[in-house]
Each structure stands twice: as C-alpha cells, then as structure tokens.
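Subgroup meeting minutes
Present: P.N., E.W., G.H.
Scribe: E.W.

1. P.N. recapped why we're keeping a running log of single-chain structure predictions: easier to compare across weeks, and new members can see raw inputs and outputs side by side.
2. G.H. added today's entry (419 aa).
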Amino acid sequence: MPSLLIVDDLISIHEMLEAVIQPTGYTTAFATDGEKGLARYKAEKYDLVLADIDMKPMDGITLLKQLKAYDPSVVVIIMTAYASTESAIQALKFGAFDYLQKPFKVDELMQALTRGLEFRRLVVERESLGPSPAVQAGDFEARLVGISPKIKRLITQLKKLATARTPVLISGETGAGHEIVAELLHAAGTPAGGSPMVPIDCRLSSLQSLRSGLLGQNGSGGTWVQRAKGGTLFLQHLQSLPKEVQVELISVLRNNANNFRLVCATEVDLEKLAEEGGFNEELFYRVASLPVQLPPLRERVEDIPALLKEVAGKISNPQFDARQVEFTEDALGTLRAYGWPGNLAEFTQVISQIIATTEARVITSAQLPLRIHEVRNWPVLADYLAGQERQYVARVLNACQGDKARAAAALGIDVSRLG
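Output recorded in log:
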C-alpha cells in the first residue's frame, strides 16, 4: 500500500484527510509541525508527503527545503490557504511536485496524490534500472567534444540527470548546443526503439498550432503532447511562447506530468524575465526544476582543436581527406581570440565552409573570414581576469603575431601593460 505523511498543525485537517484518503488504499501517518514531520520522514521514508505551508515553528517551505536536502527524490505536495499563488510558486521554486489551495475538492486532492504517486513510482523504477546504455557507451563524451573543465562539468551533470523524470531547462547563448543536449537526455532516458522526442519551436509555431498541438481540450494536451507519451517533449525558444499559452500550459503539465519527459531550452535569462513579468512565474518554476547552463564557446577555447577535428571528420572535400587539414598556430590563435557570438553553430558553419572549399592542406590565419580577424570582435581582457590573464594575453599576442599595439587594442588596455 502506498504511504502518505500528512504534516499540518490542525488536528481537524488530519481527521478529515484520514477519513477521505485511507479508504482509497493509502496508509497515513501524521505530524503537527515541520520539525516533527522531518523527523518522521527520516525515521521511515514515505511515498508522498502532503504538507501545509503555514505552520510553526517550522513552516511548509522550510520543511520542503530540508526534505529535499535529505532526499532529493522526495515527492512533496504543498497545501496553502492563501488566495494568491505567491506561496504556491515559492513551493514550486524549491522543488514541490504540486500544490493544492484550501479549501480544495476531494477529487482535486486524489488527482494530485495519484499524479505524485505515479511520479514516485517512475523515479524509483528509473533509479533501479541504473544508467542507460547511452550513458555507459560514452555518447555524452562523443557529442559534447572537449577537454575544458566547463565541458567536463557539463557532461558530469548531464549523466546525473540522464534518467531523471523532473523537467530540465537548458539555458545558454544562441548556438551553444541546446538541441544536442536535449537529444542526449532523450536517448539516455528512453529505451532503444522507444517513444520519440517531439521538438516544438515556440518561436516559429503559430498560436493556432500551439493551441492544437500543445493544449488540446480542457488541459488534456494536444497532438504533440500525445505523440510524446513515453518519450520527450522538447520546447525550444521557450521565452517566445505566447503568454496566453503559458497560462494554459500549466494545466497540461499538471495533467500529463508522468506521460513524458519535459525538456525546455531558452537563450535568455528566463528567471529574470519571469521576475520582470515577461514570462509566467509559475510556469518557469515548473519547467526549471533541473537547470542546465551551457557555456559559450569563448569560455572554453581550449576545446577548439578537438572541435576542429570533429567538424573536419564530417566534411566531404573532393580534393582530399578533410581530416588531414591542419590549422597553423597563428590561425588557432585567431580562432581562440574571436568572440564566437554564434557559438558552436557559428563555429561549425565557418570551419565547414573553409575546409569544404579550400585546396590547401594547411590553413593559415589569412584564410579565415575577415570578421574573425577584426579585433573589435575579440572579447576584452576584463572578461578573463579571473585567473586567466597571462594565458589570455599570450593567446592574443600570438593571434596578433607579436604586434603589441594591435594586441593592446584588442584587449582594451594600455600597450605599456604588455611590457
């Protein structure tokens, strides 16, 4: 029988919930404040926790935080008597599975418990299966190429999230690799030959198609949601989702939380946008349970040689094997100094064009596009002062072929600082 811990300082609530819930097959336990609830959970884990938000001495939000710190997989449903959703959004922010506003109807309570229990079952099932073959086979290292500390940390994080059922929000600049990460998470969390990943571009989809594909009727989910069942729903450019769709999408996610894995991607600071009123705050906290931040290419320039080999390996050049193309040290220096505002997408486009059209086996700095040579397109030194000054100055000097005046201009410093 599924077990439920109810934490509320009103005995009358305990009695009411016990009368409603126990006949449906749950075993119930009770605590009258957050401290007692935390102690009881630690003594005997429960499948679900149903906690009131307004308690003393430990309130429901504090209990939620401490439960999550003790057991990240705990499923907590928060009860709140407030008319506004502010407290509910706070609960979602700190990892609540869902919330109920008092007074709630019995069917709303049972639906929330059913969704939470199914989510808990899926979490336990995934944990028992262990890492998927995709993780074990090294697909993450194969597609996220590089040796930099930032890319290694990203790979480590993604492996931990590989089988998680909680929504993932991928943030990063344009072209930083959002789709690659989404595909890796889908492959790692879905059995071979299983359900598909359904990508939705919120920037390009019309309001009508979003309503029919995402929302459906009465929060049931549209055709895209149904197609993603058992697989992954990938919402790209989430910041472009129309506001009226954002509100209705909350109901869809509540009703279909266990039917698919939700992965979203954005190129903006979505939390800041939500705080400023430009994005629905509740939706943000529902999709941002597991945030993933992609590093821009300019912050992982030590990966450029490996990325060059990867791009070359995918290019067909009728003159010779593209994998034999080499870049001189001055060319590498210029590539490292450039800011890459388009990140991996821009890098792949530039290098692919060079290798596919060149007749030379050795690429020099002079053969790179003009914009990559322009010092105004190189990041200033101020972005790299945290422990990298000497290394970065050396790279820029190398890219400028020893011309200190040009290097100083690129770095935005006085030439005397270069000695």
